[in-house]
Amino acid sequence: MTNFTLIYSRDIYVDNTSGKDTNPGDSKIFPFESLQNALSTLKDTPPYDPITIYVKSGYYPFINKTLSITHNILPDPSVYHSLTITKYPNESPPVITGGVKLPISSFRAFDATKDAKQYSKIQSKVRSKIQVCDLNNQYNKIELGILEATNSVEIFVDEQRYHLARYPNSEYTDNTHSTDRIYVLPPTDNTTLLVPNIAGYYFPLKEVMCANYPLFKSEKPILGIHYYLYKNTTNYWTISSRFDCGIPTQKDGAYWTIKREKIAGALNPIESSGAHGKPILQDENYVYRGNMWTAYAPDRYGRTFYYSDNIIDKYAQYQEIWLRGYWLIFAHDQIVRGKVDNSTRKITVDRDFGKNPDFQGIMSGRPFYIFNLLEELDEEGEYYIDYEDKKLFIYLKENAAKIWITQSTFNLIHVYNVTNVTIKNIIFEYARKNLVHFTLVNNSKITNCTFRHCGLRALYFSGTHNNNITHNIFYDTGSEAALLDCGNISTLYNGKCYLEHNYANSSAQVYFNFVPAFSIKGVGNFMKHNLVENTPHIAFYHGGAKIEISYNEARNFCTRASDCGAIYSGTHWEFVGNEIKNNYFHDSVGFGKENSYVIGLYLDDNLSHHIVYQNVVSNIVGMCLVLASGRSNTVFNNIFFKCKIGFSGNSKGVYRYHTTPGMFYNLLDTMETSGVDRYSPPWSVQFPEWSKLPLTSDELIKEQNLHWLVMENTDIYCNVFSGSYNMDYRFLENCDKYIRRFEMNTNSSQTTTFYDYKNGDFRMRKNSQIYKYKCWKEISLENIGINKEDKTVDILEMSSCVAILLLLIL
C-alpha cells in the first residue's frame, strides 16, 4: 500500500470596504476587513498547506504601523509552507499607503484676514494663485512632526512630487547669464601674496559691454583706485584700472591678463606694471538648473562662505534659513541651516560640511539653493507648511484632483526571518521613509508590484539564497529603488538571487548622491534585464563577488552629478570575480556646465578581477570607460561610441590609499572587516592572488609593494573606440606602463560604420576596422532590457573564452 499526503491550499480574502474581522475570511462573500487579522489566522493552517491572501482593490492605510510577516505568525516553521499575498483575480491592484489624501474641498483661497501672519510675505503677483489647507481641520489627523533635513512630510499632487518653496526655482536657468556680482579669488597658493590685493566682489556695469561681456567694477576701491574686469576684442581677460575695455599701459598701473575664450581660470600678473600674484576668476555663475553659487569660501574646513545674489540679503531677518548644495564635489550634497549677514554677504552654517576627509569642506564656486521660505512660494509645484499654525500653502496646478500628504515613518511591510513568501500585484506608496523590507528571508519573491512616492528606499531585500525581485515598477523614490543582498562574502556562498526585469524612473528624489537606482550585493547573484532612466546619480551599483550584471539598460543617468557612472563600484578588494556584459548605457549629459562629466562603465578605486565584455556605451558627455588602479581586469569586445573620452585609466591607488583602520580606502582593513580570510579556502583557492598581498597596509604602501595598487595584469583589447570628441584613450599617472595588454583596439580615425546606431543597431558593416583583428563577436541590443531573454548562443560561445581568461587572471 502506498502512503501519500494530500496537500490542500488555503485561500483568504481581505476587503477593507465590505469585510469584517469577525468573518471567516474564506470567501469573497465573507472577507476579513484587515490584512493584520488575515495574518493572525495563519497559525490555524494545517501543515503543508500553501496559503494565498487575496486583497481587494482599494486603499489600505498603514499610518505609523507595519504589516509584519514573521515566523511567529506562520504555522509550524519546521514544516514547509508558502505564503502569497496578491490582488483579487481580475481586479486592479490594491494600494497600501502611508499617506493621507487631502480633499480638494478642504483647500481655500489665500486670505488677508485668515492668513494675516503670512499674507505680506507672499509676493503680491502670486497671491491669487495660492491655496491654503488648514491641516488641523482634516477628518484624518495629520501629524507634521518637525521640519528636518530629510524625511519630513511631503506633498504630492496627481502623483507629482511638489517641493518646498525655494530660490532659485527648481531647474530654472538664467539664459541671459546675468549675475549680481562675481568674486575674484585670491591665489590658490597661500604663500603667494596678491599685490595690490584686488580680490573681492566685482559688480557688472551692464551699460558697458566688452566683447559681449559686461564690464565688472570692484565693489570697493583698492588703495583708492577702483579696478575693472573685462574681456577685450582680442580675447584677453584683464583686470586693470581702465574702464574702457582697452589694453592697459604703464600709466594704468598694476594689471593682470591672459588670453582665453572662457572666463574661469587664473590671470597672469604683469610684473613690470607692479602686479604680483595670480588672482582666480570663477565661471560666470549665473543661476543654473535651480542653483546659485558660493562666491568665496575662505577656509575649506570652516563654516562660513560669501554669496553673490542680492535676493539673499532680505533673509538676514531670520535666525536661520535652510540651504542645500554640493559644497565640495558633485558626489556629495548636504542640507544645512545658516545665518545670513547681509552687511558682509556672509552665511555661517550650523554644522561642518561633509563627514570624512575625502568629502569634507566647502569650496568657492559651488552650487546651492535656499528653501522652505514662504517669500519664495512663486511657482506652480511649490508649497510651504507653517508648522506652528498647521497650515499648508500651495501653488496648485489647474484642475488638481488628488492631493496626498505623506505620514508614516514606518515600513509599510516588513517580512522577517521566513521562507517561501511571495508578494505580487500590490502598489506601495506615500511613506516618509521606506516602503517594504525583506530581512533574513529565503526562497522568497516580490513581483509585479509598483513602488512610488516615498522618502527613502522603496525595497530592501536580504537573505541567504533564492530570492527574486522581478517585473516591478519603481518611480519617484526618495533614495534607492531596490537593493538585493544574498549569499555570504566570507564563505563565498552563492546566493543565486535575481534582480531582473525591473523598471526604475526618477529614483533618488530626496537623496541625490551616492544613491543608485538598483544595487546588488553579496555573492553569486544576478542583476539582469533592468531599465533605469532619469536618475540623479548611479544607475546600477554592485558590491560583492561573483555577481553577473547583464542585459541592463540605462539612459539619462547622473542628472544631478559629475564623476558618476551608469554602473559603479570600488574601494573593495573583496568585490571580485564579477562579470559585466551585454549592457547598454547611453544618452546622458549629467549636470551640465563646465567640467561636469558622467561615465558609462566605472570601475573605481582599485576595483579588481572584473570581466567586462559585449557592452555598448554611447553618447555620454564624459568617459565611456574608467578603470581606476584596479588589478587583473579584462575588458574586451565592447563598443565605446561618442564620448568625450573613450577610455581613461589612472594610478590613483598609490596616493589615495589610507592606512588608518576604518577608513574607506584601507582595502586590506575592509577585507578583514568583511570577514575575508585571504590565506584560507575558499578565498585562497578561488582568488589566490589576494593571498600574496602584503600582510598589513603599512607594508603595502612601501615603495617595493606599490605595484599592488596599480593596473597590473589588466588586459584591454578588441574594443571599438569611435566618435570620441576629445580623445580615445587617456592614460593618467603612467598607468599605461602597468597595463599588461592594450591592443587590437580601434580609434576614431579608423573606419567604423554602424548599420543604424541612432536606432540602437550597433552591428558594424564589414568595412569596419575591428574585423581585421579577427577577434570581434557581434553585439546585438535586441536581447537587452525588460522582458527580453538572454542570448544563449552567444553567451555559450563566449563562455569558453571567459573561462580561459578567468584561469589566466587567477
TrEMBL record:
Ranges where the Right handed beta helix domain occurs: 405-503
Pfam family, one: Beta_helix
Signal sequence segment: none
InterPro entries: Beta_helix (IPR039448), Pectin_lyas_fold (IPR012334), Pectin_lyase_fold/virulence (IPR011050)
Entry protein name: Right handed beta helix domain-containing protein
Organism: Entamoeba invadens IP1
